Amino acid sequence: MIKLHIKNVGPVKEVSFELKRFNFFIGRQSSGKSTIAKIVSYCTWMEKEVQTHPDRQDDLVQYKKMFLPQLENFHSMHGYLRKDSVIEYESDYTVIRYGEGMCNITLKAKQTYERVKVLYVPAERAVAIRDMLQMKDNNIRSFAVDFDSARSHYDYVNRLNLGHLGIKYYQKMEDGELRNKVVDDGKEYDIRLDDGSSGLQSIVPVAVAVDFYSKIFYQDSVEGKTLSVAQERDRRNVRNYLVKDGSSRATELRIGRLLETHRTSFVIEEPELNLYPTTQRDLLNFIVACCNGRRKHTLTITTHSPYIINQLNLLLKAADKKDKVDGAAISFDELNVYAIQNGEMRDLKVKNEGVHLIDTARLSEDITDIYERYEAI
Asked: Quick one: the chain helix, strand, coil %, rounded to 5?
């Protein structure tokens, strides 16, 4: 159970909600969707940093000091937090509160935290995979690094089949460089991703990241291959700290929970970018199906697309009927759907007993307005 409260941060006036396995935020541009998603991602990451470093938990000052500058720099949120800004994050393990310009972190004495991989997929993902070395250290570069770790798995033999697009992705050495390649099922073309359509450049990074970090990343020894030298050293220090007073079965179990990743927290900005409505639908099915494996990954999505939200009704009905749509289904109790407007949010889930629906009527208001004005002319 994770509770989040945000007040006076950027365009967000005040929102409070419990984070669930599947979380969707829809609204106009600059309404606050990405602000909420970035705070979800950042607080999840901050909790992981604190909980997986027991050797540093006697002195949390460094984490408290880094909260604001790290949030501003990593998620490009300079000027979003003011004197009256409040961020409160509470899970079963950690309480993080930022207010009046100060951060406070409290650890709860409960069951051992289980390590989470936090993966933020920015709207600028196409830029990320092209120009990684020229970027500053922010969420775009971070995604580029994660994508670079993931793509090495997909050679020509192990191509990623994106059936909803009729294409397959792989990477290949060309002209002394690793190139991202796409080939269609009919072998009509085999091109560099950089030369593909804007839709391809948007959807392929999402699909590769979700496929890899929902399944392949958790295969034996794969995670270890993605660690940097600094990360390996960091984990070794934590292990040494935990066994300093002797090893036991309980110690080894705790080490496993803290150092071996158990699931991924996906936060994806606008998966529908440059995609035709039916492709948006198929991509959502693909993402949800990947998240529904035995590890029960979590998913947070920001979107402008009513097609994405309407598709949720189909996935809800599939779950109610114990069926699946292209391998995807979502339980009503595991879903949040909020419309963000004027810095506040409205729950779109229909609360009538026995009815599992998302109220999408208001998402069609702009279309209705067009026809009303058409009739009036």
From this structure: 40, 25, 30
